[in-house]
Design goal:
heterodimer; A: alpha+beta; 5-stranded antiparallel beta sheet; 4-stranded antiparallel beta sheet; 3 helices; 9 strands; 13% helix; 31% strand; B: alpha/beta; 5-stranded parallel beta sheet; 4-stranded parallel beta sheet; globular; binds zinc ion
């Protein structure tokens, strides 16, 4: 496994389909079809002028099809990486400076995510006009609202508060 | 026991439960001993949903401790109709009262409210969520009638929406109990609750059934809840199941002579009146137990020397 030269490894044919970045973050090994949800979780919708490249459903050795997201000029915070783990548990985060990968790490699932997901239970107090931010504890196989205790296993991405 | 708030029965250990139950028994035996304990103390009652019994029971408990209550009145006449948030309401009433009791239609409301106040808050029902003070009086009644260990209990009726059922089931996992859940398929325990019960216990003590006769002879306690007609989209569907979950003297012929029948009340037609006069019936006693239990609970929450009869004192 080459370290620090991700853009030169065996997969570059595919990765080259999305442009290289000078400084920023490459989120690799996102499950196929989840790239837009990754952007949503990061609150990136392009309106702030971010330079973003997205590759969707590119062939991968590790996952049959993967998505890849490259964000120019932005290094992800640990909180952001934690939250990413909910929808992209196999993702690798590559921090790029001057075209080189200077840090590479796997995401880890946090114990709690706050202000990121909205509760799907219409009877939940967090769905009203109360001054409360959503809070979910992270289970082995899903997330659980800390207020109404509803468990969500699938479709976590659909709860992303955008 | 040292909790600032009572939000769910999940937060109660076996020791906590025994502290409250033992203290309630003491109070029950001699209420005059605590008659002035909380003179000058004010309890705020915030009932965003009607519940005459629970409210009156807290009110009676506070007054029997020598304290008083402030009541926000009915939701229709309160500032809620002006769109005030619950977070604001509890912060305002906290300034008037030394403790709060909250009943609210939304799940998680008590958890949220407790994050905004410093005075003790008791959850008196949050939507389909929890109702822990009901659970304590249920446990008290069960202990008086059948004991809490080596207990086989059947819990029957609307298990899906019944918060009293969920709260009770969690609390019972602290004891050596076998729990049988009896309901029509459409009103089974929510999967979340089953998940929690399996987390709290190894799951072997929990069984689900659709017919009472499968388990009735083995039961020490049968806890009946109301199957609400309005839960069924179709009246025919309701009629099909309703009869199967009603008990009368004939039903109980298959039961042990020692079977204790409980119900959180109000009942409609789940328990035939002919059972009221039998030794099986414990539901009125159960309702009366609400006062000593809530006296014990309020005293424990309001006293600085919390654990008054609890862990540290023995
Ligand atoms: Zn919720």
């Amino acid at each position: 496994m080459s370290n620090g030269h991700d853009h030169h490894d065996g997969n570059d044919d595919h990765e080259l389909r999305v442009s290289k970045i000078r400084d920023g973050t490459v989120i690799d090994h996102v499950h196929g079809g989840q790239a837009l949800n990754v952007l949503a979780i990061l609150g990136i919708d392009g309106t702030n002028g971010e330079e973003v490249s997205v590759g969707m459903n590119v062939p991968s050795d590790r996952l049959a099809r993967k998505d890849i997201v490259k964000v120019e000029g932005r290094e992800l915070s640990q909180d952001e990486v934690d939250v990413l783990s909910l929808i992209a548990p196999d993702a690798t985060i590559n921090i790029v400076r001057d075209f080189d990968v200077v840090e590479k790490h796997r995401v880890e699932r946090p114990d709690v995510v706050e202000s990121v997901l909205s509760c799907p239970n219409p009877g939940c107090i967090t769905t009203g006009d109360e001054p409360v931010t959503s809070r979910f504890s992270v289970l082995e196989d899903g997330v659980r609202c800390s207020y109404c205790e509803t468990i969500v296993r699938d479709e976590i991405a659909s709860l992303i508060d955008t | 026991m040292r909790h600032d708030h009572l939000i769910t029965s999940k937060q109660l250990s076996r020791a906590d439960i025994e502290t409250v139950l033992d203290y309630a028994a003491e109070i029950d035996a001699d209420p005059s001993a605590v008659a002035d304990r909380h003179a000058g103390t004010v309890l705020g009652l915030l009932f965003f949903e009607p519940s005459t019994r629970t409210k009156m029971s807290f009110e009676t408990a506070m007054k029997r401790l020598g304290g008083d209550i402030v009541d926000m009145g009915s939701v229709e006449s309160s500032s809620v109709t002006k769109g005030e948030t619950l977070a604001d309401t509890v912060r305002v009433i906290e300034g008037y009262a030394d403790a709060l009791v909250l009943r609210h239609p939304k799940q998680g409301s008590a958890t949220m409210a407790s994050e905004f106040v410093d005075v003790p808050l008791v959850n008196a029902g949050d939507g389909a969520g929890h109702h822990p003070s009901q659970t304590l009086l249920d446990l008290y009644t069960i202990r008086e009638n059948a004991g809490l260990d080596d207990l086989t209990i059947g819990i029957m009726g609307d298990l899906k929406y019944g918060r009293t059922v969920h709260s009770l089931a969690y609390a019972l996992t602290n004891f050596d109990t076998r729990q049988h859940f009896i309901s029509p398929e459409s009103l089974q325990l929510p999967r979340e609750v089953v998940y929690d019960l399996h987390q709290q216990q190894d799951g072997t003590g929990i069984r689900e059934h659709d017919a009472l006769e499968e388990v009735l002879p083995s039961l020490d306690v049968l806890y009946v809840t109301r199957i609400q007609r309005e839960r069924f989209p179709d009246e025919n569907e309701y009629q099909k199941v309703a009869g199967e979950y009603q008990i009368d003297a004939e039903t109980l012929e298959a039961a042990s002579d020692d079977l204790t029948v409980m119900h959180p009340l109000p009942r409609v037609d789940e328990i035939a009146p002919e059972i009221d006069e039998t030794d099986h019936a414990a539901y009125f006693e159960q309702a009366h137990n609400g006062v000593p239990i809530r006296m014990a609970l309020l005293d424990l929450l309001l006293s600085d020397d919390a654990g008054i009869r609890g862990d540290g004192d023995e």
